[in-house]
């Protein structure tokens, strides 16, 4: 019995030693297998994976291991070829004569391939992006990715060439690339940006672990940009800090490089400090000039769920609105004005259909507005622009005039695929004077106004030309020459006898009800201490055409009162007062003289309810 028990114990110990040995030997065997694994046998699997990745047949001449035993193997890849995407043109997307790549086997256990050292010769790469933003280097059907984070400890490139064609931003480049462990990385060659020739250069330190300094320059007659900074790791554009300076004939040309959705302007100079921590860009110490306008500010650009989120502040000590348009835009505006005449409502484009993935808020403040056409009535400007899925709200508007203040907001709505934007305006003017708005004038008074309009159009002028709503204007507590007041009452005698006194302007009240761009004047009243003028008619936008009929009556004794009415035609910028022939005819004048002799000069005008009328049109 004891012997049987001893045999069982010995047997258990034997199998235990076998099991323990297996537990030790199996990992050692796996480690040995990793250390000596012939990676070249995976050429077929690598080829299939690359073919699936690029969506076109990839060929590889050979893949073989060129080092000895170890867990950081070196493999050589020879005669790699990736055909060009059919939509991108003829030839190949990439060819490679030879590459030696050292990598760690440990990330492979987690499904990641992390190269540590790369030596490349005979690289040819043709990058293409079409007008719709499709790229030949992206996985078909997959969204665009960000910059690449690497753990490279070394990089050698000999005989490398990269070409780039971008139809979306109208830019191209052909760069020769070299890299060695002593001189670092260098890429240089010719290119163009929106048709303007440039020279492009990129330099970086030798590739090794740690922070990696670099410099990139674009030089040309119409565009120069310099970026100097440090990436946290080599080629890690997702984590870098840089200082950027730029000069161009047009802000749109700079935008062709940075792709921020900017617009055409006069010549521009900019500088900024930039930090990128994917997905956020933080831009500080922004300063520069556009034409004779200056600006400073800060901006953060974030990415979330496929959208770009902005938050920033921009301040300008001086702003000329003409600086925010190109020479071509200004020439087109001047030609339009010559063709149709001057207009009060601007022809500024408001189509935001292309800003379809950007949201956020930008606060702005302008110290002084200037103009090459003469002194501007605007002395300061501030507000807040907020974009939310193609709903742009310009709120908290404060436009300071030489006298007075304009407040309110403007909303541009182009949501849900709307082809033509809808503009809504709600603006108020308070505290202005006739003198501050019109310059030298014999008429004084305090001015208030309100515009509440909504319409659709690609420009402000088009939208107002199709708008509904109302416009109100009030001038009160002023004065005017006595002869002007007499003329408003159709008192021809007093108007032309040269009375040098002054009359009180109790109020001028204009209310315009807008319907599809046509405004009906109701009321239109000019009430003075001596007379009262009443009018009816229309103002038609976008032509700003006037069609008004005016009748007047005196409030006191009349020297020579004319019967009838006058009309006002022309435009808001150039009104045309027409006195009908029958009003100023000799017969009518003799009738007026007869009525003056007999004392029958017609009914007298009554004071208008200025306060109630003002509240009505400014509501």
Provide the β-strand percentage band: over 45%
What does the overall shape look like? elongated
Largest sheet: 28 strands, mixed
Assembly form of the protein: single chain
Give the count of helical stretches. 10
Instruction: State Rg.
Output: 39 Å
Tally of DSSP β-strands:
30
Q: Roughly what is the average pLDDT, rounded to an integer?
A: 83
Structure description:
This protein is an alpha+beta fold. Among the domains are: about 35-140, no CATH class; about 470-615, no CATH class. It contains ten helices and 30 strands. The protein has helices at about 1-35, 45-55, 250-260, 325-340, 435-440, 460-465, 480-490, 490-495, 585-600, 610-615; strands at about 60-65, 75-85, 90-105, 115-130, 155-165, 170-180, 185-195, 195-205, 210-220, 225-230, 240-250, 270-275, 280-290, 295-305, 305-315, 320, 360-365, 370, 380-385, 390-400, 405-415, 420-435, 445-455, 470-480, 500-515, 520-530, 530-540, 545-555, 565-570, 575-580. It has a 28-stranded mixed β-sheet, sandwiched between helices. A two-stranded parallel sheet has the order 16-18. It is elongated. Mean pLDDT is about 85; it is low at about 20-25, about 490-495 and about 580-600.
């Amino acid at each position: 019995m004891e012997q049987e028990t001893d045999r069982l114990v010995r047997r258990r110990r034997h199998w235990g030693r076998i099991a323990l040995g297996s537990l030790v030997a199996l990992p050692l065997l796996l480690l040995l297998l990793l250390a000596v694994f012939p990676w070249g046998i995976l050429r077929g699997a690598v080829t299939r994976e690359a073919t699936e990745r690029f969506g076109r047949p990839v060929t590889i001449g050979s893949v073989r291991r060129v080092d000895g035993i170890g867990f950081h193997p070196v493999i050589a890849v020879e005669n790699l070829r990736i055909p060009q995407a059919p939509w991108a043109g003829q030839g190949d997307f990439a060819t490679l004569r030879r590459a030696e790549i050292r990598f760690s086997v440990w990330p492979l256990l987690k499904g990641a391939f992390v190269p540590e050292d790369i030596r490349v010769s005979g690289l040819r790469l043709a990058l293409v992006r079409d007008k719709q933003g499709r790229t030949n280097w992206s996985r078909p059907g997959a969204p665009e990715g960000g910059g690449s984070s690497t753990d490279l400890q070394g990089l050698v490139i000999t005989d490398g060439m990269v070409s780039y064609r971008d139809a979306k931003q109208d830019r191209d480049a052909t760069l020769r690339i070299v890299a060695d462990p002593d001189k670092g990385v260098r890429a240089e060659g010719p290119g163009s940006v929106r048709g303007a020739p440039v020279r492009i250069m990129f330099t970086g330190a030798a590739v090794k672990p740690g922070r990696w300094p670099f410099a990139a320059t674009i030089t040309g007659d119409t565009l120069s940009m310099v970026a100097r900074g440090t990436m946290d790791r080599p080629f890690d554009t997702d984590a870098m800090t840089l200082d950027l300076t730029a000069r161009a004939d047009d802000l749109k040309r700079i935008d062709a490089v940075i792709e921020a959705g900017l617009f055409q302007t006069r010549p521009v100079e900019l500088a900024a400090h930039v930090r990128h921590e994917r997905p956020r860009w933080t831009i500080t110490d922004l300063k520069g000039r556009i034409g004779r306008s200056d600006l400073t500010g800060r901006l953060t650009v974030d990415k979330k769920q496929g959208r770009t989120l902005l938050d920033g502040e921009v301040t300008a000590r001086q702003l000329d609105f003409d600086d925010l348009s190109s020479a071509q835009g200004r020439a087109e505006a001047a030609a339009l004005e010559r063709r149709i005449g001057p207009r009060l409502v601007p022809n500024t484009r408001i189509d935001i259909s292309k800003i379809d993935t950007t949201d956020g808020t930008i606060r702005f403040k302008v110290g002084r507005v200037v103009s090459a056409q003469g002194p501007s009535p605007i002395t300061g400007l501030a507000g807040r622009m907020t974009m939310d899925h193609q709903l742009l709200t310009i709120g908290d508007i404060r436009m300071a005039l030489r006298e007075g203040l304009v407040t309110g907001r403007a909303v541009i709505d182009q949501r849900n695929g709307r082809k033509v934007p809808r503009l809504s305006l709600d603006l108020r003017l308070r505290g202005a004077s006739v003198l501050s708005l019109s310059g030298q004038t014999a008429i004084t008074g305090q001015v208030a106004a309100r515009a509440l309009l909504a319409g659709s159009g690609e420009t402000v002028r088009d939208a107002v030309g199709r708008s509904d709503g109302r416009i109100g204007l009030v001038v009160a507590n002023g004065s005017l020459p006595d002869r002007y007041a007499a003329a408003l009452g159709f008192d021809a005698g007093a108007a032309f006898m040269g009375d040098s006194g002054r009359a009180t302007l109790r109020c001028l009240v204009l209310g315009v009800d807008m319907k599809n761009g046509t405004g009906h004047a109701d009321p239109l009243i000019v009430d003075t201490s001596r007379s009262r003028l009443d009018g009816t008619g229309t103002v038609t936008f976008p032509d700003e055409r006037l069609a008004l009929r005016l009748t007047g009556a005196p409030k006191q004794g009349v020297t020579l009162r004319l019967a009838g009415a006058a009309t006002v035609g022309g435009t808001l910028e150039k009104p045309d007062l027409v006195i009908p022939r029958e009003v100023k005819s000799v017969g009518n004048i003799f009738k007026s003289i007869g009525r003056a002799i007999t004392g029958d000069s017609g009914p007298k005008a009554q004071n208008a309810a200025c306060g109630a009328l003002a509240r009505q049109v400014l509501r």
